[in-house]
Design brief:
Layout lengths: L18 E5 L17 E2 L2 E2 H11 L4 E6 L3 H11 L4 E4 L6 H26 L22 E6 L7 H14 L3 E7 L8 E4 L6 E5 L13 E10 H9 L14 H8 L4 E6 L11 H21 L3 E2 L6 E2 L4 E2 L4 E2 L4 E3 L3 E2 L4 E2 L4 E3 L2 E2 L4 E2 L2 E4 L2 E2 L4 E2 L3 E3 L4 E2 L4 E4 L2 E7 L4 E4 L2 E7 L4 E2 L4 E3 L9 E3 L4 E2 L4 E3 L2 E3 L4 E2 L4 E2 L8 E2 L11 H5 L4 H10 L4 H4 L2 H14 L30
Parallel strand pairs: 1-4, 1-6, 4-5, 7-11, 12-15, 13-16, 14-17, 15-18, 16-19, 17-20, 18-21, 19-22, 20-23, 21-24, 22-25, 23-26, 24-27, 25-28, 26-28, 27-29, 28-30, 30-33, 31-34, 32-35, 33-36, 34-37, 35-38, 37-39
Antiparallel strand pairs: 2-3, 6-10, 7-10, 8-9
Amino acid sequence: MVPAGTTDGAGRTGESPAAVIVLAAGQGTRMKSAVPKVLHAVGGRTMLGHAVAAARELEPEHVAVVVRHEREQVAAATLELDPRALVVDQDEIPGTGRAVQCALDALDAKAHAGRATQLVHDDAVDDTIHDGDSHPLGDGLDGAVVVLAGDIPLLDGATLAQLLAAHHADGNAVTILTTEVADATGYGRIVREEGTGDVLAIVEHKDATPGQREIREINSSVYVFDAAVLRRGLGGLGTDNAQGEVYLTDVVASARAEGGAVRALLSDDPTLVEGVNDRLALATLGAELNRRIVTEWMRAGVTVVDPATTWIDVDVELAPDVTLLPGTQLHGATVVATGATIGPDTTLTDVEVGAGATVVRTHGSLSVIGEKASVGPFAYLRPGTELGRKGKIGTFVETKNAQIGEGSKVPHLSYVGDATIGEHSNIGAASVTVNYDGHAKHRTVIGSHARTGADNMFVAPVTVGDGAYTAAGSVIVKDVPAGSLGVARGQQRNVEGWVARRWPGTPAADAATRAQAPSGEAGQLGAQAQRQLADHNALTGTIPVVPAPDSTTGSTADGSATENEGSTQR
C-alpha cells in the first residue's frame, strides 16, 4: 500500500483505491425490459452512469466494469461513460464472487503488464524465478479495491470516500457499507461479534436461520477489500449454498479466518444504498433523488415555486437567483445563469440560458438563449438554435439550426430553420424559411436591421440584405439587396357579384344584396323578392351598379372622388 499523504507512480494518494469494480452483469428480470437493468436512467443518468461517476470521484488507478447480460450494450455504454474503463466479461459461473474474481484476474494481468513494461524500461528484467513462485512481476494488483453494485443510483462519491477512509484508518482487511431497514426480507444479514461489533459473517436471506432473519442490519453490496485478502479469499470460494452461486460475501469469513479485521460502516440513510430491482423501485428512487437535487438547489439560492412539479437532472447547473416556475423540467447538461426565469411548463435539455432571460412554456434542446432574451410561450427550440442577447422567439415559433442575432425578433407563428438572422431585425408573423428541396437543406440569410413582412416564404438559398424590407405575402426566391424592398406577390383582382351568382339564396348572398341595395331598398324587399332578384341577375348576368352611401364614399368636401393608393375599386 501507499502511505497516507504520498503518491505512487500513477499519481494516486494513499486514500485513493487501486481499483473500483462495478458489478453490471445481471439480467434484472424483474425490470421486464429489453434494456439491461443498469442502463435504465435515474435523474438524467443511467444507473451504470451513477456508479461510474461515483467511482471516478475516488480517483482510482483503474475502474473495471463486469458485464455479461446484453454484453455489447453495457460494454458500449461503459466506454462512452469512461473510455479508460476496463470492461471485463463474466463467464457462465454465476454469482457476485465469480464476477469480482473475473475482474481481479483482469486487473492483475494489467498490473503484471505494467510492471513488465516498467522493468523493461529500467533494463532490470530477471528471467530467473526466485524463491519458488515469486518473480519480478509480483502478485498483481496491490492496494484497496472498492466493489459496488451497478444498480444503486443514489450512492455518491462522498459516501464511498468515507468508507474508504474508515478502511484505511482501521487497517481493515474488509470494510462493508451497511444500513438498517424495517423489513430486511431478501437482503443479506450482517452478523456481528458481541462486544467488538466486528463482522463475523454476511448471511444471505435464503441461507439465514430464523434468528438471523430477525436482524435488521443489511449488506449494501458495497465493500472495500485489501487486494491480497480479496485474491486469497476468492481462490477458496465454492457454490455450497441455496442459490448454487459463488458468493462474494464468503470472502468475509475467509478474511476473519486469516485474522484480518472485518468491520462495517453503518449508513443512517437506507435510501442512499437502496438498489433497484423493478420499475417501482426505479420510480421511487428517481423521485427521491429529484427531491434531494431540488432541495440542494433551493439551499444554494434558486427559487423553486413548486418543488413537487419541478425536475432537475444531476448534471444541470443553476446560478443563484434563478427562478423555476411550476412544471419545469431541466435535463442533461442544461445551464441557467443568474436572474433567469424558467417556466411554467417548460422542458429544456442541454440548453444554455443567459442571465436575466425568460423562457415560458417552451420545449428546447441543444440550444443557446442569450442574456435578457425571451422565449415563448409555446415555442419549440430544436438543436442548433442560438438566440442573441435581448432577442425574442415568440408564440408558436419553431427554430432549428438557426442563429438569431442580438435584439432580433421572431414574434409569432413562424418557422426559422437553417437560417442566420442579423442584429435588430424583425421577422413578420407566419413566416417560413423554406430550407428543404427534397434532397438537401439550404440556408436563408437575413441581415441586420431588416424588416420582413407577414406571411413571407424565404425559399433558400436566399439572402435579404442589411436594412432591407419585404412586403407581406411575398414568396422571396431571389436575393434582396441591402436597403431594398422585396415584393413577390400576384396582382389582386375582385370578381364582383360572384357570391350572388355562385351561392344565391345563402346568408352571404342575402347580406351582399342588402349591402348593395340603394338606401332603404334592401329593407323594402322581402326575402322572396331578394331571391328572385338574385336569380334574375344570375340568369342575365346583370349586376346592378349601386352607388355607395355618402358616409362610405371616397368623396372630398367639394364632391370630387379620390383614389387611394393600391385601391381596386372601380
